[in-house]
Amino acid sequence: MDSESTVTTCYRHPQVECHVRCTRCERYICPDCMREAAVGHQCPACVREGARSVRQARTLVGGRVSAVPVVTYVLIAVNVLVYLAELVRPEIVDRFAMVGAGLLGPDGEHYLWVDPHPAGFTPEGLVDGEWYRLLTGAFLHLPPTGGTFGVFHVVMNMVALWNLGRLVEPMLGRVHYLALYLLSALGGSVLVLLIAPEDAVVGASGAVFGIGAAYYVMARRIGVDMGQVNRFMAGLLLWLVVSAVVTSWEGHLGGLLAGGVVALAFAYAPRDGRRTLVQVGACGVLVVVLAVAAVAKVSALTGGGVPQ
Questions:
Q1: Please, what is the Cα angle at 149 between 147 and 154, to 5 degrees?
Q2: List of residues 6+ apart from 292 with CB closer than 8 A
Q3: What is the rounded average pLDDT for all residues in the chain?
Q4: Mean pLDDT, to the nearest integer, of 101-110?
Q5: Does one domain contain both 196 and 238?
Q6: Cis geometry, peptide bond prior to residue 197 (ω within 30 degrees of 0)
Q7: Do residues 271 and 251 lie in contact, with contact meaning Cβ atoms separated by under 8 Å?
């Protein structure tokens, strides 16, 4: 007399009869739960567990590997969209440009800073507590008919960001790269505040110079042939000197220095459990140094008072 066959069902779908086991946990799985494996099939839970146990590739500085420079593309898109907004609302430039100390006259014109200021004049810039200008100015550019370059200001910066970002972002990873970009922009704005607080400055070039510094640091860290890299840096430094005649060299130099400091911290942090702590700590120290310098300068400009 034949024995009665035992009916086996999927552990995730008990109502479905099945006869295939997961090669990892040996539980029965139905066709909907089967996932191709090197040998046989695995259930979804084992596939997820296997993915967690696989060591994820990292960049030299500890960031996640990313073949597509998404952050670079997003930054370019943001800069272009802001520029289009400037074309529609030109007053955006005056409202968000990097200005350390200025006066808005009763006639709506902009005047050089004096303290105390005459009646009818109102402070504008960081001396009026507009600290956001330290970063917003880095996403603005000259209007089509403004300054020496006009529309080529945004075009040149975006071309440089496109070329450098596609090289540096994969070296660092997205989070490290974004931190580098923002801290470079901040460093450029703070140096403008310290040296030329009455200048109204716009442009992503401070951040771009910071990325250029990171390109040099990372190339040396990786050990590539430095011939082409050195030629690039020579051209970048030459532009820093030449641009002093027509642009804000303070913003360029500040971005270059801040970007170099951040890149050095990222590239040479110990490759063990302390790496993240060292990198975050270095960025934090840089932010504190820049913040203290900015507050001290604004305090000096306002006669000892710091606007809130």
A1: 110
A2: none
A3: 89
A4: 90
A5: yes
A6: no
A7: no
Whether residue 2 is predicted with pLDDT greater than 70 in this model: the reply is no
Number of neighbours of residue 23 by Cβ within 10 angstroms? 15
What per-residue string of b and e applies to 96-108 under the rule 16 or more CB within 10 Å gives b?
bbbbbbbbbeeee
Please state the separation of Cα 287 from the chain's center in Å: 14
What gap in Å lies between CA 174 and CA 105, rounded to an integer? 44
- Point out which residues pair with 123 in neighbouring strands: 103
Least reliable range by pLDDT among 191-200, 227-236, 293-302: 227-236
Of 28, 54, 80, the residue at which a domain comes to its end is 54
Percent of the chain predicted with pLDDT > 90: 56
Q: Which helix (H) or strand (E) holds 35?
A: strand 35-36
In a domain, 64, yes or no: no
Total residue length of the chain: 308
Residues near 296 by beta carbon (within 8 Å), at least 6 away in sequence? none
With cut-offs at 50, 70 and 90, classify the pLDDT of residue 137. Answer: very high
Cα separation of 47 and 293, whole Å?
A: 52
For residue 18, the model assigns a pLDDT of: 87
Tokens at residue 40, please? Answer: 């046989």
Residue 1 has pLDDT above 60, yes or no: no
**Number of domains forming the structure of the chain:** 2
pTM of the complete model beyond 0.70 = yes
Residue 201's DSSP bridge partners are 98
Verify that 94 and 35 share a domain, yes or no: no
